[in-house]
Queue: 2 jobs
Job 1
Amino acid sequence: MELAGITDYDIIMGKIQILLANGDFYKVREIIDQLEKDSKQEDLPTDVKQISIIDLNIDSRAVEAMNEYGLLIVDDLYRCSPEELLSLKFVGPKAIKQVRLALAKLGVEHD
């Protein structure tokens, strides 16, 4: 998007410069993390994004916890880091492995 020669990039960089000048490094990290998540979102084919995580071969208690957290489809799961998933009740290393395997079957690599 561009308005009078100002792009989204310009706006984001302006925000980052202000935050850095104020020493708010945590907010800068949040912006960078969100940009990384947004860029990852474009990597998935549309048909894969919309698959329900209930249809994946993942422990039912882990799926229920993910659903309560708002993770309903593959796209939601893909944009969530393993660390974020591990913070959920009933989601442990076994569930993370199941998530990785399920996504790999769909041709998706999850970091």
Job 2
Amino acid sequence: MTLGLQDLPSKDFPTGTPMPNLKKPTLDKDLDKLSYMEEAAGSLGRGLIAPGIALVFIVLCALGAGASMSGAPGTVIIVAAAAIGAIWHSISVPTMLPTMLAPPSVRGR
């Protein structure tokens, strides 16, 4: 008769009582993988919030310019200029914002 690890006596498990299976079940492994993927997707999504808001701002500026200039000659140029201005604003404001919000003593005035 060969004794396995589960047949050895333990203070928690009297002789003859099988020890619990210490292997991780497949369901736990799958749930761990799923939660890891969920955390990664959430982290990636948070990084895309700012560009998404900037894109919505650019589209709204172009639509507003197009709606106010509908039927006028040169509408395409005005809409393109509004989109370019919105892009410029989307790029420049986040870089200037910390400086604009700093107290005058920090800005050097």
